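Recall the central idea of this unit: under ordinary conditions, the amino acid sequence of a chain determines the structure it adopts. In this exercise we apply that idea directly, starting from the sequence alone.
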Amino acid sequence: TMGVEKSLINKELKQLFNNIKFWIESESYDPDEITIRFIHRLMQIQCFPDGNARHAKLMADIVIENVFNGDIFTWGESLNNPKLQREKFLDALKKADKGKMDDLIKIARA
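Accordingly, the structure predicted from this sequence is:
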């Protein structure tokens, strides 16, 4: 039921925040990759019934700008085609689901 689902989401979020803290402290990845790994997992947890990608992109901008003092992500704006942006984003997410983050990082900076 909803209580079990909320409990599981809370547990997953706590693990995610522990992971990102470790990645930052140990410099496991560069700032872009830490941020993208964070939001990829955040989208998998699905904290909301709708809008998880929008929420995750907002969180990515908050992390990259406030934790790493970096520039916010463009998420494929240079493609000038919203449908193509979405297709490339979804393709990159599928690769990230298999542990390959490179395309998701590239689309975030495209």
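Helices lie at 2-26, 31-45, 52-66, 82-97, 102-109.
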